[in-house]
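A protein record in our archive is deliberately plain, so that people and models can read it alike. The tokens are whole numbers drawn from a learned vocabulary of local backbone shapes. For reference, a complete record is included directly beneath this paragraph.
>
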Amino acid sequence: MLDFRGQGKGLALAVMLFGIGATAQAGESRLLYASLGDTTRAPIGWVEFCTDNAAQCQGAPTQPRDIVMSQAAWRDLIKVNRWVNETVKPLTDQEHWGVIEKWSLPTDGYGDCEDYVLLKRKMLIDAGWPREALLITVVRDKKGEGHAVLTVKTDKGEFVLDNQNESVVAWTETGYRFVKRQSQSDPNVWVSLGDTKPAVSTASARDQ
């Protein structure tokens, strides 16, 4: 059962959340949230996805809203992340659709990183999670390649659902370089993320 009511969960919950897979030192633990930069253009894959799936992209501008990270919410995130990762089989867009880049819900059971993200986002929204806290995010992975993950913004920090990791981890534990993501106030507005290193700010070559 999801809990968005803001009830205090105490120190035990905070320890539980950051103890799973966490090795952050005291200085790093303060980096609960990525720093936001200027607005930037949305990935072409998202724009084209919205053309074909308008219902998945609708949403009037709203106030930013984080979720309250209860133990039940934490379990839900782990369950959704693992189920989608285990159910959807990896397949590149070139192999799947014959094009370089295409974002789609993996209704046939196949997809690449963006498709995993879209399904996780949809499942959580359908379960009652606020859209404003579920942000599609473009990163550079450990190999420096474009990659997409789902950032979940909570009162305990930002956590990442990733098809390359069965665990849900704090954004600082991914080893990724964060480039840009959806704005909390509007899913069709994208913002750059604070990173001092130069990066190609897209998930695919078509966005360059």
Notes: The chain has one domain: 33-207. Strands lie at 36-40, 89-90, 110-111, 134-140, 146-154, 157-162, 165-170, 177-182, 190-193.
